[in-house]
Design a protein that fits this description.
9 strands
């Protein structure tokens, strides 16, 4: 009986501190999107090719295309670019690009050319009542992931 009481007390203390499934999915999505941004930036610089990351804010989906020399959109060569960056149940709340402002619906296209990405991009992800902010800086390939909804000024 003593063992059962100890296990019950331990469970009562530990379980509330474990992250919820949604919080884990949100954090994973933020990290996946950040690594995707870094990878795209590096690939564009290394290969001297042009890529586009398409963020559909309305349905919280992403896709990556490679531009041919005549401007046609082609599927990317690398398997990493075809994977899902944002998990089911996590939403893109908004995307902020200086040239377009704050976009809360529709599609945002982020270009990556031989010089990397030319724009400061801020992406806010939401899962339940929690937020993560992904900030991609121009040209250098630096991408930060921060907890909460962060307002970034250039």
């Amino acid at each position: 009986m003593v063992v059962i009481v100890i296990l019950a007390l331990t469970a009562a203390v530990v379980l509330p501190r474990l992250p919820s499934g949604e919080a884990t999915k949100l954090k994973s999505s933020a990290r996946n999107l950040a690594s995707g941004l870094r990878f795209l930036n590096d690939q564009a610089i290394i290969t001297k090719d042009t890529y586009r990351l398409k963020l559909n804010v309305t349905d919280s989906s992403t896709s990556i295309v490679k531009l041919s020399s005549i401007g046609d959109e082609l599927p990317p060569d690398d398997q990493f670019m075809n994977r899902r960056l944002i998990e089911e149940g996590i939403s893109i709340e908004d995307v902020i690009v200086p040239r377009q402002g704050t976009v809360t619906e529709g599609e945002v296209i982020i270009p990556f050319g031989p010089g990397g990405s030319p724009d400061l991009v801020t992406i806010h992800l939401k899962g339940g009542d929690q937020h993560y902010t992904i900030i991609a800086y121009p040209s250098g390939g630096k991408v930060l992931v921060q907890t909460g909804y962060q307002e970034i000024t250039s």
